[in-house]
Amino acid sequence: MAELENLITVKDLTKTYVTGSIDVFALKSVSLTINKGEFVAIMGASGSGKSTFMNIIGCLDNPTSGEYLMEGKDVLTRDKDELAELRNSKLGFVFQSFNLLPRTSAQENVELPLLYNNRVDASIREKKAIEALTSVGLADRLGAMPNELSGGQQQRVAIARALVNAPLVIMADEPTGNLDSKTSYEIMGIFQKLNDEGITIVMVTHEPDIAQFAKTNIVFKDGTIIANHAVMDRKNAVEELKLIASLTEEKSTP
Amino acid sequence: MKLFNLFRIAYRSLNRNKLRSFLTMLGIIIGVASVIAMLAIGEGSNQTIQKSISSLGTNSIFIYPGTNTNGGVRGGAGSNQTLKLEDADAIAAHCDLVKYVTPIVQKKSQLIFGPKNWNSTIMGVRNDYMLIRSLSVIKGSAISEAEQRSAAKVCLVGVTVVFNLFGNEDYNPTGEIIRMNSIPVKIIGVLAKMGQNTFGQDQDDIVLAPFYTVQKRMMISTDHIGSILASGKSELQVVDAVDQITSLLREKHKIAPSDDIDFTVRTQSELSNIFGSITKVMTILLASIAGISLLVGGIGIMNIMLVSVTERTREIGIRMAIGAKGRDVLFQFVIESILISVVGGIIGIILGILTSEMVATFGGWPVVITPLSIILSFGFSSAIGLFFGWYPARKAAALNPIDALRYE
C-alpha cells in the first residue's frame, strides 16, 4: 500500500526582481505539492519562471513571499546554516553545466558533500564515493579529472555527487541541456532507476521528449503553472536506448 | 574532525591549483623579500656611513693645558703645563660618558737608521690612542700592555717614516732598530696608511711609542703631559662628556667656580653636527624605503588575492549548493590564505636574506639584516594576504548560492 506522502508543499510562492523602477514577476503565487517518489518534469519557455521555482525549492534562492514546507516543516524560517545542512543531507543538485570543481578527480568531487557532512566518518567517505560512482557506471574512472571526461560522464559524476549523501530529492536543472540525445537518454535511464529506488526527482527541462521520461509534467508560463498532468505514454530509457542501438546498427550494416 | 576536513579541503584546493597558489604566494614572497633586501642594503649603508664618519673622530675630545699669563702677556693655548698623568687616569676612572682616554706626550726628534735620518713627531701614548683614532697595524704587531708598563724601547711607525728611513714604502721594517733621541728603539709594526688629514697634514709621518717610553726616557720634565685625548661613548653624548671632564678637572685642579679654568677641552663639533644631520637623513631615507616597499608589496598581494578569490565565486557557489555553510567557505579561504601567507612569507624571508647576502658578496655592498625588517615585512604581508583572502570570500559566502553560481 503506497501511501502518498507530501514531500514538498509550496503556497503562493512569489518572486519579484526589481529592475530599475519596474518589478518583474518571475513567479506569481505558485502553489504546488510534490509527493515522495515522484518524478516531476518542469517545462516551459525561457523566462517562464521554471528555473526560479526550482532554485527556490532547492533552497538556493529566496522567494519574495509565500510558504514552503518540506516534510511538513517550514523551510523559509530557517537560517542560512540550516539551509546549507538541508541542501547537504536532503537535496542533491544536478546542473546543466555540471558544475564540477575543475582539476579535481571524479572521486574527490563526489567526496565533497561528505566532507561538509559532520555525520560522515572519514573512514567510510571513500567507500561511499566509490559506491555512488559505481551506481552511475563510472567505477573505472574514479581518478579522472573533469576535462578528461565526456559531457555525459561529467553529468554522471554530478549525479553521483548528488547521490552520495542519500538525499530525499534530486533537483536537476536542464540536466541534458548540454548533451546529445543518446547520452541524454542514458542520464534519463539513471534517473528512472533512482526514481524506482524511491528517490524523488524534480527536473527542469524544455525538451518535450526528455519530459516524457518523467511521471508528471508541470508547465510554467509567465510565472504561473498552466498545466500539471501525469505523463500518458511514459518513455522507458532502457527501451529507448535499445531502439537507438538497433537503428544505428541498421545504418552501419546496409 | 570538522576543522580537519576544512584543512583537507583547503590543502586539496591549493594543491590542485598549483600555478595559482604559486602566483599568489609569489606576491607575498616578492613583497617580503624586497622589503628585507631593501632595508638590509639601506641599513648597511647607514652603518657604513656612520662608521666612516665616526672614524673621522667626531666623538674625540681634546684636552690641552691652559694659557700661561705672565705679566699681562697671555701665552695662548697649551703654553702652560697644567695637565698631569693623574688627570688622564681620573678621567678614565670617573667619567662614565668617556669610552677611551689616553695621555699624550710628544716631541719632534731626529730618527736615524744607518746612513739615513729623518725628523718626525714621536708620540708617547697609551693603547687607547689606536682605538680613538681608529688606527690599525698592517705589518708586525701593536704595542702590548706589558710593553706599555715596562716602558719598552719599541715603536710603531707611519709609512712616510718607512719611506724616508728605508727608501721604500713597502719595505717591512719590523725588527729593525732605529735611533731616536739617541736611544735605540725597535720597530715592531707599521701603521696602516692614513693619508692627509683635512688640512693637508701628512698623518703618516709619525712614530708611536709606549707612553712611559717617551715620558721617562725622552722628556725633560716627567711631571706634566702634553695633552689628553679621549672619546665619548657616542657621538651624541660628546657634549655631556665634555661637561663631565670639565667639572672633574676643575675639581682636581682646585679651581674656584669664579676663576678661569687652566685647561681647554675641545671637540670636533662641526663634524658632530654634520654627523647628526646625516643620521637624520639616513633615518628618513630608510623609513621611506621601508614604507614604499611595504606599500608596493602590499598592493601586489592585495591584487592577486582579490582576483584569485573573486574568480572563485562560482566555486564558492558550487560548494554552498552541495551543503557548505558560509563559515565553512570562509574558514577554507582563511586557511588557504594563512598557508599561502606563512609559506610565502618564510620563502620571502629566505629569499630576502639570500638576496642581501648576494648583494654583499657580489656587489661588495655592506648589508645589515635587522630583525625589525623581517617582523615588519612578514607581519604586514601576512596581514594583507589574510585580509584580502578573507574579505572577498566573506562577500561571496554572503551571497545566495544561486547568485554565486551564476557569477561571471
Tally the beta strands of chain B. 12
| Overall shape of chain B | elongated
Oligomeric state, counting identical vs distinct chains: heterodimer
User: How many individual helices of chain B?
Assistant: 13
Radius of gyration of chain B: 34 Å
Count of DSSP strands of chain A = 10
Please characterize this protein's 3D structure.
- The complex is a heterodimer of chains A (254) and B (408).
- Chain A has helices at 50-57, 80-90, 106-115, 122-135, 151-163, 181-196, 208-211, 237-252; strands at residues 6-19, 22-35, 39-43, 65-70, 73-74, 91-94, 169-173, 200-204, 216-221, 224-230.
- With 254 residues, chain A is of the alpha/beta class.
- Chain A has a six-stranded mixed beta sheet, sandwiched between helices. A four-stranded antiparallel beta sheet of chain A has the order 2-1-4-5, with helices on one face.
- In chain A, α3 packs parallel to α5, α4 packs across α5 and α6 (181-196) runs antiparallel to α8 (237-252).
- Chain B has 408 residues and is an alpha+beta fold.
- Chain B has helices spanning 2-16, 18-55, 85-94, 128-132, 145-149, 159-166, 211-218, 238-252, 269-310, 313-321, 326-362, 371-397, 401-406, and strands at 60-65, 69-70, 73-74, 98-113, 116-125, 137-140, 154-157, 177-180, 183-191, 206-210, 227-232, 263-267.
- In chain B, α2 packs antiparallel against α9 (269-310) and α3 (85-94) crosses α8 (238-252).
- Chain B is elongated.
- The two termini of chain B are 34 Å apart.
- The interface between A and B is medium-sized, with 30 and 27 residues.
